[in-house]
Amino acid sequence: MTIGMLGGTGPAGRALAARLASLGSDVLFESRQASHAEEVVSDIGQKWPGRSLSLQGVANEDACSADIVVLATPWDGAAPLAASLSAHLEGKVLVSMVNALGKVGNEMQALMPPRGSIAVAVQQAAPGALVSGAFHHVPARGLANLDEELDCDVLVCSDHPAATAKTVELVSSIPGCRGIDAGSLSAAAAIEAFTAVLIGINIKHRAHASIRLTGLPSAS
Ligand SMILES: NC(=O)c1ccc[n+]([C@@H]2O[C@H](COP(=O)([O-])OP(=O)(O)OC[C@H]3O[C@@H](n4cnc5c(N)ncnc54)[C@H](OP(=O)(O)O)[C@@H]3O)[C@@H](O)[C@H]2O)c1
Q1: Number of Cβ within a 10 Å radius of residue 211
Q2: DSSP string across 11-51
Q3: How far apart are CA 116 and CA 110, in angstroms?
Q4: Which of 32, 36, 194, 198 to probe ligand 1 with, by most ligand atoms within 8 A of CB?
Q5: CATH number, span 2-204
Q6: Each residue of 5-49: pLDDT tens digit?
Q7: Is 133 helix (H, G, I), strand (E, B) or coil?
Q8: Beta bridge mates, 29
Q9: Tens digits of per-residue pLDDT, 102-129?
Q10: Domain spans, the chain
């Protein structure tokens, strides 16, 4: 499977890219500067010399040719980037892992973006894309450490059943991760905002916790 990473050169995108590449996906990195994508590809390769990771820096519209496209920019860049690539994202599953957060004093606080969540804003910016939200609560640090198995649930929301199914499948292809259908894109506001709570918990407890839900039937 090919995965396109939009804004994938940051810690979150490069961590998810390395993890998915380690499981056999071909990852196409987009950057606003081609040289930055090349640098990130080279950095990841040097970090994991024993592994055969298929990673490539490409122009942003080429990242949209992937089977699944992931959006991993800061919150204020997400909808404008999706709008600029809207024509290339027609019919594509576009997974937003973007959270709207702002630092206030020592705290990360949830911002209320226009339209309530970044995922909804992205869906409206690229109406032909099948937008889903996922991976908001998975700390990049754990995701990036390919020697460590993950242990978390990932809430997936979308207005498109096909996007939910493909995203849950992608999440659950990662050992230790369980993708959970968390409903329509209306859930994105609460999912994104909860990231601020989780970051606060992680700062307070000097941890890298993610989430696990209890009480679900085993195949959800
Ligand atoms: N860090 C985590 O543990 C984590 C976990 C889950 C979810 N997330 C979410 O994932 C997203 C990315 O997090 P991050 O820490 O990796 O972010 P980041 O480093 O701040 O940004 C990621 C990349 O986005 C590109 N970018 C920056 N501003 C942009 C703009 N205005 N328009 C388009 N592209 C822009 C940059 O790439 P180029 O300069 O190469 O274009 C940058 O390397 C955030 O929304 C975050 O909340 C983070």
Answers
A1: 15
A2: HHHHHHHHHHHHTT-EEEEE-SSHHHHHHHHHHHHHH-TTS
A3: 11
A4: 32
A5: 3.40.50.720
A6: 999 999 999 999 999 999 999 999 999 998 999 999 999 999 999
A7: strand
A8: 5, 57
A9: 999 989 999 999 889 999 999 999 999 9
A10: 2-204
